Fold this sequence. Notes:
The chain has about 270 residues and is mainly alpha-helical. It has helices at about 5-10, 15-35, 35-45, 50-55, 60-70, 75-100, 110-125, 135-140, 145-165, 170-175, 180-205, 210-220, 220-235, 240-265. The protein has one domain.
Amino acid sequence: MFSQHAVIGAVDPTTAAFVLVTLLLAGVVTGIAGFGFALVGTMALATVVDPSVAVVLMIVPILATNVSLLGELDADAVRSCSRRFWPYVLATLVGTLVGMAALESIPADPLTIALGVVTLAYVGATQRAVPIPGRAALEDRCFVERRGMMVGLGTISGVVFGATNVGVQVVAYIRSRDLEAGLFVGVLALVFVGINAVRVGAAVVFGLYPSLAVGVLSVALAIPALAGVLAGRRVRPQLSERIQRQGVLALLALIGGRLVLGGLGIA
């Protein structure tokens, strides 16, 4: 359960300004790349409140930013992608609920380290500067659209997402489908909108919001997040795909490293 000290500390003027700017930046990243908001935002909050507090406070802003990105899809694309990815989405949803149910029982330091490790693993797997032996074979074998594999990947992805807000494993799977850039952003938003809409209700059912004030704070954090997304969407056409990818990976590497060091008590 959240401590009142953690929640109150999160809204003092200095901390509030830091969080607002960071969520604005996280929104910009999401508007450009289609993902990254949950990682950047959760990491920022995790530096001033308990990681489990950060995870729950970010649920509404994550939902809001992904709803804003649904404009990337037209009606035909929504129907096509729903038919194509529904086993993965459903399994991810179930796994997410399992991860949320376990959230309060996870100690803060291991949770922080887990956030960082998963983030760095995604950066390592996605970067193209250093070839990773066996990566292509692994993707060909695991990142497929066979129903059984989609259910397995989705369940694991959901457990991690529900407990940490880290969704890079979902990003990695959708990206492996070689979708056009705009469609990739829209499909990713579609997946996360459904999952996070359920997460809002699940957080209430599981008692993760201890007071109305916490819920109001979570809703308020959606405002700078949406402003950032709108700014990022305006910038996106001016940036090459290479610059987008390298910029996001560099930011995620910094975040992942900071989380691991913080969880180990080094930084």
